[in-house]
């Protein structure tokens, strides 16, 4: 008996079990997300949203944030340490550095010492009338080595390098010298011998211990490093209050100018080296003491101006924003990892890390803010939302400070007293899906395997041929892990996109598409 | 200025003369008396320039006068001879002796001035009193203003104990080592802390502290050195004070010495004044003494001049005596020399006679040799031909044609040989008898007899022996023995002047002309010493004197026999 020829009905199944990261390039396809919100690589390649955030504090006008043993921030004109105001600073953005017992606040040149709960200025100054005289040194009589006053006590310590100015009777005494000893009443300062012209100074004299006005600072090897313009500074060893000690010993201060064009745009301590960035170069300072400090230049993409807070180390790699995108720096030549961003350019980045992922809040060319997360383990980017972070900090959790609040993000353990965010809306929009077929096709069924947290919901939508109307395929509320068959009204198209969105935590393990392939017309 | 021998030589040269044209006597005179020598030059120049005999006689007379007056001799017609002038001095007893000397000039006298009276006696006495009574010098005592300091510093040295707290040097070192220690501590702390990320570890703190300790230890190490320096400093201070005290002490002594020197200067001033007074006194006395001595010196001068004059007169007196003695001695010496010359002349004549004899004998021997030679020739000729030719026959006294050989011819030959041998034997016998003691003649005879045949005639012999001591008696003997005559010219060359010089007379044996062979002065002197009468003495008498060589000496000089009596006490010469 002759039987009719049965032809293939051209329906094929295509399953996606790996959901890539954020990639806005045209080539992203079904393996990447052309757009996403609050997605995460926590279960990569399973599609999951980020974890819930916890708000730890509410601020009024937060301008700087840091964490080191505790969190500290500047809100308005107050400096808070562990939520307690410790002192007053000027309003505006700040840079912090933690040095041994100090928390340094620039550009205010202030410090806070948590151990002693001491807040003060890195600089000290005294003005009054003095006499230059013979005195003592190391309990022995000494000549021309003493500054004495009958006024208020000097606010200096032995070892401070002070600048003497205002001497008119003995102008040779206008110099910067190191205090060797101080009398018990702090009204006599003793220096090395024979450095002064002896006699009473008739005018008012100012003695000051000053530090340079550094734009960017970091701590490295127990020194406070900083830079401004073309100059690199380092404080005396363990003493961020002294930048003018040049005694010829290993604990001295250090300063050096570099000759390359442009100002420094940031600095960071990485792998035991203080590293200073310009937009086009990186200076790595070698050496262990001032006598052998040496700033070695690499002419490569440095830190973009305004992104000096973008530095963060994730997976032992230092990330920062250059003018060409986010760079991964391991001490040699930095690598641009911003390919998935396509041609997008960002600025004013602020970065942080939980040690695994790199979080960066940065502003696109339309001044819109984005919070991206890079997971070095998989080399994928995820976009969370449009958060404009002021700063990040790690203290048991990854803190993200906004101008009006402080959050714990990432994979947090709920800090005491914190408040979890009320809802979590997320979405994952694939790139254009062609099913590897340049001809027309009709997707007739979706099989979605997923698991939803209680009360979570998932919506599956489809967009044909880059249209403007998303067609809802299905709303899911299942709480158990299972597959859902979702029949679709067949529609002939060239390509299409899927968008999976939801509220609450969910995991999408796979999506299988049954597609009928047609002709090219 | 007295003339010198060089002046004589110059004048001689100017006159175109040479020393060869002067006899040795004239040259000796010129050396002793150059002025006389120059006069002789002029006389000889005139003699040579004379063109007439009268001028030559006049020039010769002038020369002879010079020789006689200045040299005590004459030179003969040609000035080449030596004829002493007769002085009459024949013995030492004839030499003049001094008699007593008398001087008639008045001797000067001397009167001494009055004694010296000094005008400075009072001044000198006063100054001397001041010096004698000059006060003793009194010295201020010395006070050491540093005694307290010296004692204190000395105590500090002897009881030295180092206290670093009071040592400024220790203070400086303490500051230095503390400073460097702290710098080292800081540097160590910083360097070591770099190994722990800049955070000072406990090791870094300890290392820094120990670096500081190291410097503190070095400060401690300085203490012995500083102690030594402090001790040296204490010693230096003590030395400085001691030095200053020594300076004070030296200044004190300088002052004392100055004062003492002033004290001495005052005393010395008195002494100088006294010396000045003494000097003035001495000057005055010296003036007095000078005046006094002037008179004395004047007296002494006059006395000296007197003595000089007297001595001069005495000198003249003794000079005259000495001159006379010199002249007498000279005359005596000349006579003795003449005697000696005569002796030599006689001896020479004897020798010549011996030689003449020997020569004559040689000549005879030659003739005998010739006889022998002729005999031999004839015999050889007879033997060779075997027949006597005319000459052979005549020679051997045989007939011409007589045969040689046989007893007869041998007898004839032997006869002739005996004849010839007889001739030779007679000749030798004659020679031996004529002068048996003349060994030389015997030798000549023997030579001739031995067919020497080298001497052919007497002239050749004479010529050959002209340098020998042939005497006239030798020649005479030879001539008499062999009958030879002599060539007068050869004989003249022998220089026997007066014997064969006339060219015609030959010898005049037996006449008084034998005296011509002798120097007349020495002959007469010898005769005088021998006690012979010059008028009656014979040549034999004189020959006996010549042969008496113990008492007389003789010598031939320029062909003249000089004979002189030997002086017995002339062992040392005179």
Describe the fold and architecture.
The complex is a heterodimer of chains A (521) and B (574). Chain A is built from no helices and 50 strands. Chain A is mostly beta strands. Chain A is elongated. The two termini of chain A are 36 Å apart. With 574 residues, chain B is mainly α. Chain B is 66% helix and 3% strand. Chain B has 16 helices and 4 strands. In chain B, the strands form 2 sheets. Chain B has a two-stranded antiparallel ribbon with strand order 1-2. A two-stranded antiparallel sheet of chain B has the order 3-4. The longest helix of chain B has 184 residues, at 202-385. The two termini of chain B are 32 Å apart. Chain A binds chain B through residues 100, 137-142, 180, 192-193, 220-223, 237-238, 247-252, 272, 288-289, and chain B through 168, 171-172, 174-175, 178-179, 182-184, 186-191, 193-195, 197-200.
Q: Mind describing the biggest β-sheet of chain A?
A: 5 strands, antiparallel
**What count of helical segments of chain B does DSSP give?**
16
Estimated structural class of chain B: mainly alpha
User: How far apart, in Å, are the first and last alpha carbons of chain B?
Assistant: 32 Å
Q: Identify the most extensive interface between protein chains.
A: A-B, 25 and 23 residues
Write the layout of secondary structure elements.
The complex is a heterodimer of chains A (521) and B (574).
Chain A: E1 11-16, E2 33-37, E3 39-40, E4 48-49, E5 54-58, E6 62-68, E7 70-75, E8 78-81, E9 84-88, E10 95-99, E11 102-106, E12 110-113, E13 118-121, E14 124-128, E15 131-137, E16 140-148, E17 161-165, E18 176-178, E19 181-182, E20 188-190, E21 199-200, E22 205-209, E23 216-220, E24 223-228, E25 231-234, E26 254-257, E27 266-270, E28 273-277, E29 282-286, E30 294-298, E31 312-314, E32 317-322, E33 325-329, E34 335-336, E35 346-353, E36 358-364, E37 369-375, E38 380-385, E39 391-395, E40 397-401, E41 405-409, E42 419-420, E43 425-430, E44 441-452, E45 457-464, E46 471-476, E47 482-487, E48 492-493, E49 496-503, E50 506-517
Chain B: H1 5-14, H2 24-32, H3 34-49, H4 53-71, E1 73-74, E2 83-84, H5 121-132, H6 147-158, H7 168-193, H8 202-385, H9 390-396, H10 406-434, H11 439-449, H12 458-464, H13 472-482, H14 488-493, H15 520-530, H16 539-547, E3 552-557, E4 560-565
Helix pairs in contact in B: 1-3, 2-3, 3-4, 5-8, 6-8, 7-8, 8-9, 8-10, 8-11, 8-13, 8-15, 8-16, 10-11
């Amino acid at each position: 008996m002759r039987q009719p020829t049965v032809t293939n009905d051209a329906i094929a199944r295509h399953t996606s079990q790996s959901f890539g990261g954020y990639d806005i390039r045209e080539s992203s396809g079904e393996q990447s997300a052309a757009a996403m919100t609050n997605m995460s690589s926590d279960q990569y390649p399973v599609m999951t949203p980020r974890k819930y955030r916890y708000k730890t504090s509410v601020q009024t006008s937060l301008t700087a944030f840091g964490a080191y043993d505790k969190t500290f921030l500047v809100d308005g004109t107050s400096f808070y340490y562990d939520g307690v105001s410790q002192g007053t600073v000027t309003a505006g953005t700040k840079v912090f550095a933690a040095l041994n017992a100090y928390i340094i606040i620039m550009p205010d040149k202030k410090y806070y010492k948590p151990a002693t709960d001491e807040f003060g200025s890195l600089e000290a100054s005294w003005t009054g009338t003095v006499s230059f005289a013979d005195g003592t040194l190391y309990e022995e009589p000494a000549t021309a080595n003493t500054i004495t006053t009958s006024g208020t006590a000097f606010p200096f310590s032995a070892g401070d390098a002070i600048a003497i100015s205002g001497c008119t009777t003995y102008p040779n005494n206008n110099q910067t010298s190191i205090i060797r000893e101080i009398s018990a009443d702090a009204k006599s300062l003793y220096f090395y011998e024979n450095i002064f012209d002896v006699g009473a100074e008739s005018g008012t004299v100012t003695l000051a211990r000053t530090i340079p006005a550094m734009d960017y600072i970091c701590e490295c090897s127990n020194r406070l490093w900083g830079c401004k313009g073309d100059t690199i500074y380092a404080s005396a060893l363990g003493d961020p209050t002294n930048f003018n000690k040049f005694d010829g010993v290993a604990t001295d201060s250090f300063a050096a100018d570099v000759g390359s064009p442009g100002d420094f745009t940031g600095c960071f301590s990485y792998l035991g080296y203080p590293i200073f960035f310009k937009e086009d170069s990186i200076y790595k300072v070698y050496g262990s003491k001032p006598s052998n400090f040496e700033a070695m230049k690499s002419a490569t993409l440095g830190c973009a101006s305004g992104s000096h807070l973008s530095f963060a180390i994730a997976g032992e790699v230092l990330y920062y924003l250059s003018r060409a995108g986010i760079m991964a720096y391991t001490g040699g030549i930095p690598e641009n990892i911003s390919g998935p961003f396509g041609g997008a350019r960002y600025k004013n980045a602020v970065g942080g890390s939980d040690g695994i992922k790199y979080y960066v809040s940065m502003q696109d060319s339309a001044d819109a803010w984005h919070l991206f997360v890079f997971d070095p383990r998989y080399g994928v980017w995820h976009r969370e939302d449009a958060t404009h972070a002021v700063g990040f900090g790690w203290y048991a959790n990854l803190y993200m400070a906004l101008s009006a609040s402080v959050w714990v993000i990432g994979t947090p353990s709920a800090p005491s007293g914190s408040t979890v965010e009320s809802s979590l809306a997320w979405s994952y929009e694939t790139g254009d899906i062609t099913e590897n077929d340049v001809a027309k096709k009709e997707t007739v069924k979706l099989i979605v395997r997923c698991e939803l947290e209680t009360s979570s919901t998932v919506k599956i939508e489809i967009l044909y041929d880059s249209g403007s109307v998303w067609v809802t395929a299905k709303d899911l509320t299942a709480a158990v892990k299972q597959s859902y068959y979702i029949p679709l009204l067949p529609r002939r198209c060239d390509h299409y996109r899927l968008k999976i969105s939801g509220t609450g935590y969910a995991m999408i393990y796979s999506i299988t598409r049954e597609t009928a392939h047609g002709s090219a017309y | 200025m007295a003339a010198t021998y060089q002046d004589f030589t110059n004048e001689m040269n100017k006159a175109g003369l040479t020393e060869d044209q002067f006899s040795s006597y004239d040259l000796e005179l010129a050396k002793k008396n150059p002025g006389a020598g120059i006069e002789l030059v002029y006389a000889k120049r005139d003699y040579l320039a004379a063109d007439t005999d009268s001028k030559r006689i006049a020039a010769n007379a002038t020369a002879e006068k010079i020789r006689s007056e200045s040299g005590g001799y004459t030179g003969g017609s040609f000035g080449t001879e030596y004829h002493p002038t007769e002085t009459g001095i024949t013995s030492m007893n004839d030499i003049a002796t001094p008699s007593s000397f008398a001087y008639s000039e008045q001797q000067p006298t001397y009167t001494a001035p009055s004694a010296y009276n000094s005008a400075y006696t009072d001044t000198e006495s006063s100054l001397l009193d001041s010096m004698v009574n000059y006060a003793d010098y009194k010295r201020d005592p010395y006070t050491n203003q540093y005694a307290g300091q010296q004692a204190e510093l000395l105590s500090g040295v002897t009881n030295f104990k180092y206290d670093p707290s009071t040592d400024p040097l220790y203070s400086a070192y303490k500051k230095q080592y503390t400073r460097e220690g702290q710098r080292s501590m800081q540097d160590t702390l910083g360097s070591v802390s770099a190994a722990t990320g800049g955070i000072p570890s406990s090791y870094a703190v300890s290392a820094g502290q120990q670096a500081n300790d190291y410097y503190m230890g070095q400060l401690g190490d300085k203490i012995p050195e500083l102690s030594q320096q402090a001790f040296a400093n204490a010693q230096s201070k003590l030395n400085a004070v001691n030095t200053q005290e020594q300076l004070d002490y030296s200044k004190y002594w300088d002052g004392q010495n100055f004062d003492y020197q002033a004290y001495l200067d005052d005393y010395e001033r008195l002494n100088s004044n006294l010396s000045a007074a003494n000097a003035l006194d001495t000057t005055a006395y010296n003036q007095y003494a000078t005046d006094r001595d002037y008179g004395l010196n004047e007296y002494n001068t006059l006395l000296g001049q007197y003595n000089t004059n007297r001595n001069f007169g005495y000198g003249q007196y003794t000079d005259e005596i000495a001159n006379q003695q010199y002249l007498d001695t000279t005359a005596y010496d000349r006579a003795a020399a003449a005697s000696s010359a005569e002796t030599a002349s006689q001896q020479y004549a004897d020798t010549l006679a011996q030689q003449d004899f020997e020569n004559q004998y040689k000549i005879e021997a030659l003739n005998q040799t010739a006889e022998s030679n002729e005999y031999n020739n004839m015999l050889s000729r007879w033997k060779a031909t075997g027949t006597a030719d005319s000459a052979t026959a005549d020679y051997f006294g045989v007939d011409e044609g007589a045969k040689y050989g046989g007893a007869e011819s041998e007898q004839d030959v032997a006869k002739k040989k005996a004849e010839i041998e007889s001739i030779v034997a007679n000749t030798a016998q004659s020679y031996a008898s004529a002068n048996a003691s003349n060994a030389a003649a015997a030798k000549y005879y023997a030579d001739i007899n031995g067919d020497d045949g080298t001497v052919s005639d007497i002239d050749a012999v004479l010529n050959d022996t002209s340098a020998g001591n042939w005497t006239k008696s030798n020649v005479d003997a030879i001539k008499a023995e062999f009958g030879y005559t002599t060539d007068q010219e050869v004989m003249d060359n022998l220089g026997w002047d007066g014997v064969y010089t006339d060219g015609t007379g030959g010898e005049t044996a037996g006449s008084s002309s034998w005296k011509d062979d002798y120097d007349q002065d020495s002959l007469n002197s010898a005769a005088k010493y021998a006690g012979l009468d010059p008028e009656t003495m014979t040549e034999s008498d004189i020959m006996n004197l010549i042969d008496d060589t113990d008492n007389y000496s003789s010598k031939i000089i320029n062909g003249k026999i000089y004979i002189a009596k030997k002086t017995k006490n002339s062992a040392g010469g005179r």
